[in-house]
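Journal club prep — side note

Before the paper discussion, L.F. wants everyone to see what a predicted structure for a comparable chain looks like in token form. Sequence:
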Amino acid sequence: MTAVPAGRQTRVHLVRHGEVFNPDKILYGRLPGFGLSENGHRQAKVTAEYLAGLDVAAVVASPLDRAQQTAAPIAAAHNLPVQVDPRLIESRNAFEGHTFEAGPAALARPRMWRLLANPLRPSWGEPYTEIAGRMLAAAEEWRDTHPGRHVVLVSHQLPVWTARRALEGQRLWHRPDRRQCGLASVTTAVYEGDRLVGVEYAEPAGPTGNTPGSVGA
């Protein structure tokens, strides 16, 4: 790894994609064909403007359309290509393709009960520990590739929020309605060398919270 001058920081920006066109309000997860809405494209451009003045060395995104489309204006502002890292992909979820997710609606369907057995893992999808592991591995690898500079990683709500909780030393299981990870938001891990010295959060496109059809997206 290239040495970083004393006092110079490396910043890894974890960006959540913008609003998705999802008129049927399904939990789309890793399903293909879910790109940004008109508002989502606007949000992506606002976030690109927010990051435009930084010394960005790489823009990397999940392979899913909505992340790629969010990354495009960010990369264009720095004359960079959008690189792909599969570790940034949305989490696996057994409720993908349904208009409901883990919660009261699923309890009304007995065949789904087995999926709700362990909300701390969770039993209906990719374990939080696996999500955190792959997200932090990606963040650290890209940090080490571009020491002393900024790197933008575009991902999804649950992976970004899980990574943040891991960075801050919090338990990984949580209430989805309390995630601080709005659409097109920027969660920044600040490093001195390989030592984490801070975590920052910004919502350049404005607060959105968990909009219908976007939880875990």
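L.F.'s comment for the group: The longest helix spans residues 128-145. Keep this in mind when we get to the figures.
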